[in-house]
Amino acid sequence: MLFEAKAYDRSIVSDDSFPAVSGDGFRIFFDGCNDPRIEAATLDGARYAIEYWEEVDAAGAVPDSPVILEDSPRFEERGFMLDISRDRVPTMGFLREFVTKLSRLRYNQLQLYTEHTFAFRNHPRVWEDASPFTPAEIEELEDFCLERGVELVPNQNCFGHMERWLRLPKYRHLAECPDGFEHPIAGRKEWGTTLYPSPDSESLVREMLSEVLPLFQSPKANIGGDEPWELGQGRSRSAVEASGKHEVYLAFMEKIFAITGGLGKEPIFWADIILERPELVPRLPKNAVPAIWGYHPSHPYSDQCRTIADAGFRHQFQVVPGTNTWNSFAGRLDFALENIRIAAAEGCRFDARGLVLTCWGDGGHHQSTSSLFPSLIHAARHCWGVGQPDSSDLPEEIDALFFPSRPAGNGKAICSLGRIDALLPFPNPNQSFLHQAFFADPGTLDRLAEGVTTDLLEEVIDQMEGIPTESVESDIRLSKEMNSWAARRCLGAKHSSQSAAKDLRVELIRLRDEFARIWKKNSRPGGLVDSLERFPVDNI
Predict the structure, then answer these.
(1) Helix ranges, 280-354 (H)
(2) pLDDT digits (tens, 9 = 90+) for 210-259
(3) CATH of the structural domain 77-121+150-402, one choice from 2.60.120.10, 3.20.20.80, 1.10.10.60, 3.40.120.10
(4) pLDDT by residue (tens digit) across 54-102?
(5) Which SS3 state, helix, strand or coil, does residue 249 take?
(6) Looking at the domain that runs over 410-539, which CATH code has it been given?
(7) CA 80 from chain center: how many Å?
């Protein structure tokens, strides 16, 4: 079952011995024979109770003695954030199906992370190739969400991660580094990613937010603020040298907070930069909502939650773990499950208001959509009750929720493939070996191949071949084939086989065509060309 409620023997515990239900929690009183009586404070709570009882009944697990069943959320806000700016923009049909699943999993918030994929009235050049969301689509999706107890929260980054804007000549003058910079992870970038904190940049942010935020009924808005990589390396160098990067950062963020508040929204922002200087946290506006994100099990959630809570933001911050599917084909599943567990535990310990699970699309969004399902269920469970959810039944629950009309096996394949990346070294915590090997230039590929043995690569291939995928969804099967191709490419690099290279190129073209076919099932055409251009057809 997706969720487990606490059970009390009704012959020992009386009906009136409990405090009133609050929030989205519920209580079910069952006398052993008649229909149960439900107690809930909200319509969503009542719906959760009905769905839980229906699941109990369908499983043949209705108690044969009087019982009181109870469940309540650990977090007021239980959200999911989907990246729609790294090439892949979902169709409305996909989102309607997905929101229905979110509602069933008791999520009550959805954010669509946007950089350039909204149809800004005065900036068509930014989004013309991206198949962006229109105002009418936002309003339609919001109505659909609200009918299912899900709040659609705007999420518009507007400080860092502005590369889709700043690489265009019209906006180049707004960049901190108009001529590019040296990215600490990705190497040389030919254009800027961060706005130069200036009145002109502030005007652009004001225009963006003034157009987007009023479309949403939600009183909240995520306005970004993460990873302004090159701040202080370019036009703000003198200001940063005079007062420090974090003071310059906070001064510009305060302007964005003010714009957001002026539009009637509570500003949510990524807290990574401000947490580098914990002494600055108390200076944040009291209506700001820090979002503490980190995607590795080693992320210091405990220290960061304590810092935020002690600075006056207890009950007003979010913990933000991740699906760990980006820069992978099938996901780093065990990393994700442990990361989610820790984020939920520490968030609950320090009274976080919400938990938001993120799914990013870094590197071209090549991962299987299905790869996020285990994390989605696992995070939903951690948002409820007080126990530690068991992940051993994830394959069965994935099948039941996402593939109810298909033969069993999709969930097992997803979870098995999600553990392949852990067999190999990681180039960095947010990227999988096989993903990097798949897209690597020849020099990078050689370095990767030197770091693994032939035996290890052959073992990885053997394990993947042992995962049945003949009757599973096509995106799951493709993720296995792309992983296998990357491993065989590494083997070819180790042995400098020309015949193997020729075969690999033929296979890569087939994989690329299949990737494009599957993309079109649930994603819009915008971004597909960018994603396909990463396939190294000319580098084999």
Answers:
(1) 301-308, 333-349
(2) 999 999 999 999 999 999 999 999 999 999 999 999 999 999 999 999 99
(3) 3.20.20.80
(4) 999 999 999 999 999 999 999 999 999 999 999 999 999 999 999 999 9
(5) helix
(6) 1.20.120.670
(7) 7
